[in-house]
């Protein structure tokens, strides 16, 4: 299949308030969001939807749809992210969570890992007092107070470096983030990977809280309540890398099978929580225990949390993750129980 995807950067530039604009022409913001992240492949979208987006952006279909362009995946070493919602270098990642779900821990871990890989890390200080950001600051190279300062830092730093920029949703709502990203596009600064967070926790109630995204990390209240960290929802988190044939076929197959298992496991959990495991038929009971093992495996100890958890941080290469998940999918009986998979790295 030909690699085709929406030109997310162009949409951000041309239609800053995409939620209202989409509604004005009869498009559901959720549909636009899913097209941007690749949850709905462009090739399966209705023609009228793509045409309406092109008209909103004031561009041609050829400008709106990117064909055959390569996408470079940033391997984070975090199992659930690399498997279900990988990051594209130079893309925009949106974190959707309510306070207490662990989004700042995931962000701090990402900054720690990327800085270790040589990325220059920048945080645009959100307006107001936010003491919860204290733990994030230790892996930030530059803290700026506005868009202008951020531009100057990127302009004066050594050309050719990779950057990670973090900003609160307030900068998206004000339109300042679109101005900055437009400046990046104009200057050809395609090596800036952006993380957008929502410190107020309001984004969970909106279909398109940040505008078009390349990657969406949806946090899960149930996982957080059961201390299954990182509490990233494997069903609703997604990435444009999953669209078309950007993803390795083996990765894509394992990712699809894992999602299918976890989706059914979540349905069965509702029954087990009320009636107990004995009420499930034997075949469904096997699916439940298999899903329980996969969910446990997707937990992971973080470097930034070592002082709190007493567990050494783990980095798991993508190929190890794929191999381990395939083992759980194909031969779950080789693993005695889910408990031994909680907060490990790879399966030994």
SSE blueprint:
Blueprint: E1 4-6, H1 8-14, H2 18-24, H3 29-37, H4 47-57, H5 61-64, E2 65-67, E3 73-74, H6 79-84, E4 87-88, E5 92-96, H7 103-116, E6 120-124, E7 142-144, H8 147-156, E8 163-168, H9 169-173, H10 176-187, E9 192-197, E10 215-218, H11 221-225, E11 238-239, H12 249-275, H13 282-297, H14 306-309, H15 318-330
Parallel strand pairs: 5-9, 5-10, 6-7, 6-8, 8-9
Antiparallel strand pairs: 1-2, 3-4, 10-11
Helix pairs in contact: 8-10, 12-13, 12-15
Keywords: ATP synthesis, ATP-binding, CF(1), Ion transport, Membrane, Nucleotide-binding, Translocase, Transport
Organism: Mesobacillus jeotgali
Domain ATP synthase A/B type C-terminal: 247-320
